[in-house]
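Supplementary material to the annual report.
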Amino acid sequence: MRLDVAEQFDDRFQQREAATVGMWTFLATEVMVFGVLFTAYTVYRAGDPQAFVLGSEHLYESIGAINTAILLISSVTMVLAVAAADAGRRGRTVALLVATALLGTCFLGLKGFEYVLDYREGLVPLFHYRPENGGPHTQLFLAFYFIVTVLHAFHLATGVALVLGFAAAIHHDRSVTPRSNQVQSLGLYWHFVDVVWIFLFPLLYLVK
Amino acid sequence: MQRLRRQTRRDLSIGVALLLLLALTVALAHVLHGAPSLIAGMLIAVAKAGLVAVFFMELIKGSAQVRIFAAASLLWLVIIFSLTLSDYLTRRPEAVAPYRGVATIPAGPIDQTASPTALSPAPSQRAPSTDPAPRRSPPH
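Predicted assembly:
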């Protein structure tokens, strides 16, 4: 089916380029949001490296590693979904989008389970925190851990909702080609969320 | 069809490479400590992010315009980092960060055993802690 080219574009290549560049602009703002958090992390960690080592030891490294693997695989399914959309394969696109959303939900579920474990260990500052887990600098690390992972989880949950919405819409469409640009933009967003976690995992869980 | 199959094969092999790098970073974290651990972890993270950005986010087949927009996000990140760190890293130790030195937040015993860094003064220069002995048992 013909991909409709909107009036302001000369051809579908320019339309695709506009979608890509627009999404990258949004991702640049997101890079800055997480970037300042990483900057704060750098300042805090340089201020008291030992407290960060101590705080990192309290976290569940295996859960973090499994979650990282889940997100990496979800990026693979996402890029396969984008390729399928470009190739006009509607059923394959829907299946891969659903797989991506499923993996994202697994991540969120594991993260929630991990939060419960953290809370029970008394690792949440201000909420039944156990002082033997560490002094105020370690609490700074733990507070940072919760804030940045919750922010990341919000981004991931938004991504999961969008992916499911697109899967449903494409499932009911007669062809996937009109939406191929949208799927590609969504793919960029999903990969960005993955890249953020790629950096978060060693900085939070692997501080030795 | 052939193109899709070739691209699928390529995407899957990059996925495998990403998972191998993950295994490597976890393995190295158990072997290395301190600064080498941080450097190795960050290098591997950059490699993984690079693979995702170049191949999955299609920077390799994007136009120059797309690549410039992607690079611009890195540029602003560099600006954020360099301006902020140029402040903190050039402060005199006594004047640094309100949580060090004359602290309003009392430091616990574990925090006081931290080794001196560029941002924290040596123990002899630090103001005496006003922290009462921390509670050992949970509040309830």
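Chain A touches chain B through 62 residues (CB under 8 Å).
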